[in-house]
Amino acid sequence: MTISGSIAFNIDIRMIISPTGQTLTRFLPKPLSSILSNASISTSIHRSLPSRDMDNGAGLSLYPLHRCKTIHLVRHAQGIHNVDGEKSYKAYMRPEFFDAHITQLGWQQIDNLRKHVHASGLLRRIELVVTSPLLRTLQTTVGVFGGEGYTAGMDVLPLMIANAGNSARAAISSLNCPPIVAVELCREHLGVHPCDKRRNISDYQFLFPAVDFSLIESDEDVLWKADVRETKEELAARGLQFLNWLWTRKEKEIAIVTHSGFLFHTLTAFGNDCHPLVKKEICKHFANCELRSIIIVDRSMAGSDFSTTNYPGKIPLGLDMPSDGVDDKSMMEEKQLADSDPKENEKM
């Protein structure tokens, strides 16, 4: 038997440390660093395991529904850098791959994922889409979660203009789709690789007019350094900060379009207290345009939202003591009576 079809595995943000034992918070932006102070989050992969595995740290868990969020993780479609990068890792150093765009094969992957999110009903449930502010993730985001074709004269901004980023694709409408917001925290591994450097936000605003870039403070890319590569530990800490930021959002079902390295190093921090097969499922590398759905669980009481489905009962008021409560009350009354009866005490 499963409870809500999920098993929880937990991690405390404060446990992400460097090999030297120092906590990794110095690379985290100050406005969000306060979220990390005492917050802990957990996620649940949709999987059921027999109760005999509970001794292996993979048992069933119960959580109130209003303390959970469903997130749908998506890796971007194939970019031009992926083609040569699959053959040689050194290809990622090539300057012509700056802010790499999606290949034509990648657009086919986007079309297929789009069909899936529509056919499965997923698009109707998603309240917000969060995207990394790089060209390949923005193209994937609007292609999968955006509206239909855009025509001049529409009373809305397009999500993407025609041929954005050498896409050879028609403009995409922002009608009948969830809001899309760009967030720096879910960017790919920072530094050194030109494909992971973004262009100015003002350039993206021209290409993707209906995407919300208001959470990004700097027009220029001040995070990417040509000679300094973000460490894996720093990337994992940034990933966990991103998850904690997600928890501050009011939306309960959110899609995130991001990158392979970001997903791998963030998710590797999870699943150490559950079955090895679940850990493997969580941490394995994402394929291009792969989607996985997981649950974030609030274990720290950080969330303040009230349940929209719970009902307090006892309306109107009435006597409703549970049967075991009645039994306990009767035993207590009998004991008090015996203690106060001197004749009973004499018999003892």
Automatic annotation (TrEMBL):
InterPro entries reported for this sequence: His_Pase_superF_clade-1, His_PPase_superfam, PGM_Phosphatase
Source taxon at top rank: Eukaryota
One Gene Ontology cellular component annotation held by this UniProt entry: cytoplasm
Region (Disordered), start-end ranges: 322-348
Biased composition (Basic and acidic residues): 326-348
Matches recorded under SUPFAM superfamilies: Phosphoglycerate mutase-like
GO molecular function: phosphatase activity
Main function: May play a role in carbohydrates metabolism.
Family: Belongs to the phosphoglycerate mutase family.
Protein name according to UniProt: Phosphoglycerate mutase-like protein 1 isoform X1
Organism name: Momordica charantia
